[in-house]
Amino acid sequence: MKLDALLTSAGINIGLCVFFISIYSVIRKQPSNLYVYFGRSLTQERNKPNDSFNIENFLPFPGWILKAWGPTENEILASVGLDAVVFLRMIVFSIRIFFIAFLICMFGVLPLNYYGQEMTHNQIPRESLEVFTIANVKEGSQWLWVHCLALHIISFSACTLLYFEYQRISKLRLDHVTARPPKLSHFSILVRSIPRLRDMPLDDVIKNFFITYHGMSYLSHQRIHRSGAFHKIMTNAEKACTKFVRLRAASFDLKRRPASYRCGLCGGTSRSYDLYDNASDVEERRTPLSRSDSGKKEEDCSAALVFFKTRYAAVVASRVLQSSNPMLWVTDLAPEPDDLYWSNLSIPYRQLWIRQISIVVATILFLFLFLIPVTFVQGLTQLETLQQKLPFLRGILTK
């Protein structure tokens, strides 16, 4: 492989990166995606996005890249959160390791590999990449210790930077936890896959279990209900029916003239009583769905929020295995309400394991299906090597 081919490949990759960054700069400005990329800021400011058409939303501008370098670490921590700061620290750590490896390889390893054997070198742009690898160093060379030293320096630098990064992130996490005001989610855990008993309500099952095993710290619990698709349809139908009945009643009042009768007892006017035909029917249609008991519609899913007296007790209860069967009484720290998709709690916990295994199997199959064409294309560039390694392919390759 020639160096100019490598530069061509690098140019193609850089062009693709610029293309994807341009696409991202356009997508992030669309009104329908604002809650995806700026959900937290919109929630805090409580401003509705402007859905009006703007030509600038379809033009890629690199100004957001420059703005991303502006905020300090403290500003990012205050506006976005600790997770974003940790992610940025990981990127900075990777850049530091790459920079150290670049300096060592550029000024130590590459010159050694380039002059590893006595040979006439061409111009660097026309050189093969093999002259820059360790394969160009002759066997038994006394300069191989440079490679070992470079590896030790890079490994030592990575371990040292990891130690300081861990200390830095641990301090940030401790300051973040201690500085935050106490919230209800700090004292609660999410319990899933709660077993059901025929002769005992679900509330009593949860209460008896946590009183037995966490009696000193248990405070209370709250079951999580789900409505299901049917009840969502009923709710939407009730809203639509209410609007329809109101509009129909309003048009009925305007189009139909009432029949008036005199009272006869107190000598009132002729408009003492206005009787409408089918007025009782209108009243009955006004809330036809509200008579059903909404409490009976609710279905309990096998999940609950359990509250403790201290944060330490909540953390311990969320990390301890609650049952000999790991598929029952699954506990975890309670997430923030905005970070939880409540409909997923109705999924049985056993199905979650099946879905995770399915995702892993699908990923493995995708990797193998991706490697097959890549291996085939790479093999076409090394036909001579394939003929030497696999002699039975000579007849096929010569054809």
From TrEMBL:
The chain crosses the membrane at residues 6-27, 97-116, 143-164, 357-376. Keywords: DNA-directed RNA polymerase, Ion channel, Ion transport, Membrane, Transcription, Transmembrane, Transmembrane helix, Transport. InterPro entries: Csc1-like, CSC1/OSCA1-like_7TM, CSC1/OSCA1-like_cyt, CSC1/OSCA1-like_N. Residues 355-397 form the CSC1/OSCA1-like 7TM region domain. Residues 5-165 form the CSC1/OSCA1-like N-terminal transmembrane domain. Residues 186-344 form the CSC1/OSCA1-like cytosolic domain. One of its GO terms (cellular component) is DNA-directed RNA polymerase complex. It comes from the Eukaryota. It holds the Pfam family RSN1_7TM. It is a multi-pass membrane protein. It is found in: Membrane. Its main location: membrane. GO terms for molecular function: calcium-activated cation channel activity. Belongs to the CSC1 (TC 1.A.17) family. This is DNA-directed RNA polymerase III subunit RPC2.
